[in-house]
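Lecture 7 notes: from sequence to structure.

We start with a single chain of 292 residues. Read the sequence below before looking at the structure.
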Amino acid sequence: MTSGSIDLHTHSNCSDGTLTPAGLIAAAATAGVGTLSLTDHDTTAGLEEAQAAARRAGIAFVPGVELSASWRAQTIHVLGLGIDPQAAMLRALLDAQAARRRRRVEEMCARLTRIGLPGESLLSAVEAAPGIPTRTHLAAALTAGGHVRGPDEAFRRYLAAGQCAHVSAGWPPLEAIVTCIVGAGGCAVLAHPARYRLSAGARKLLITAFTSAGGRALEVVSGGNGAQHAEGLATLGIKFGLTGSVGSDFHGPEQAWNPLGRLAKLPDSITPVWRGARLTREHGGSAESFFP
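Now the structure, written as tokens:
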């Protein structure tokens, strides 16, 4: 392992982050991050740029992605760490996910038009933004157009589940997403498991399904989670034979409460996801094997 902190869950403007992939790496270097994974939502478009910047900055880089899945009608996020971005199964899935996201934003804008908002111009603003279209982009367009005071209000009034412009994306089943990550040579990590609105029993059922499908790790330490969450999730991970991962879910410096690399310590009770894995930079063009 390289020195410095470890952050295995970050975003760039290739999805809903605000920094370019190279800008993210520069920020990580400033923050003292030694190992980083870029895990944009349903896209690997920023990996090449980020990896090149990481090599120059002396940061060990883990190619990643955050895939959207469905489990019992709830959206679940699964990280794929150490993936092969060119794997055919993954490429096909990402193309399908991008199409789902485009259709979703188009339908949301159509619904906004029906309630008197300028849906067509909002859609144009989303399409002009870099990266794969997300609800975050639409919230930003609503804010920039003066229709809401900020993104939180955009979600609360229009875009969140149950609101007038919300559209279900129809994500693939959790099992299919995990299978795709494994097929692309990656380690499937259940992202921010404490964030889902689930009872304790339902959370255990989710982790059971995730593990049965080939999932290997739980994001025990996540941005915004306190030490009490980490200890509880570590216990849960151990119960299911999973390793533990850490990630800020960083989206940009505007979120001062969620900085890069400044995370609680992974509890000693759980095996780190990176133990035994070669999280070092490429040397002489040799291929890396992440999370064997």
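The beta strands are 5-10, 33-38, 60-71, 74-81, 187-190, 217-222, 243-247. Keep this in mind for problem set 3.
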